[in-house]
Design goal:
Length: 323
Amino acid sequence: MAESKHLPKVLLLGPPNVFQIHGKHFSQRFQFLKPFESPIPTDQFLAENCGSVQAMMCSGDTPVTSDLLRKLPAVRIIVTSSAGVNHIDLTECRRRGISVCNAGTVFSEDVADTAVGLVIDVMRRISAGDRFVRSGVWPVQGQYPLGSKVGGKRVGIIGLGSIGLEVAKRLEAFGCKISYNSRTKKSSIPFAYYPSVLELTINCDILVICCALTDQTRHMINKEVLYALGKEGVIVNIARGAIIDEKELVACLVDGKIAGAGLDVFENEPEVPNELFDLDNVVLSAHRAVFTEQSLWDIYELMSGNLEAFFANKPLLSPVIDG
């Protein structure tokens, strides 16, 4: 591997799922420093090997704190495999002039597909019906309970970014009435805008969460919002688990305060509240909305492109912060 010594050095934290699949391709373009493979403590590894490293690659599961960044005085770019950047101390990055690149819109269509799949599954009781058939009770208990029509439902989307827009486009094709809440009203968007999450929730049958996790959105979906959704309402979350107050969500589902939920994300992953396992009106997914064969190749190309642009002093492809 002598050739790799001449490649640009990149500190690899995590590593991201995309590296586990496309590591061979990455390693043909960059020399990776991997503290997770070293027998010495991480702090010692960073001190001995990473003092001059300018680039870092990480996943959304890897906290990039101000304390970590202080140990990396030469870092000038962080490339994350996630669309969300709540795991990175952006304030410290701005102070230091560190560029941050995320997944951009690479995952938007796949995540939107999953969101719509969860909506259909919860409303039409597909997963629950599958369990009903497989358990062998159909001949004994007779017909399975009816589901609910998706077309014509009022769908409220929280966060009308690239993912939210893709969700809206798909559900509008079903004949759903779309409305949204976002930080600002989008003048080019024909859908109804509600300035508050509570007002949006009062006016929808299905609430789809597509926004980023920030200090402001943490536990934004609280008891008041869930009660406003009501006994006929369904919530779908493909964003971040902590946007919902999970304890309140579980209580509302168990007590029948809302009709159902489709959840790809959870507050304390990979731990999932046990109470959800026995509920037929809840569909669970293991935070896989972003992952398809095609999206992982696309994120490999985007992350590589961002790193190559940095080392060539060219414009970054998906900057969140352009230092």
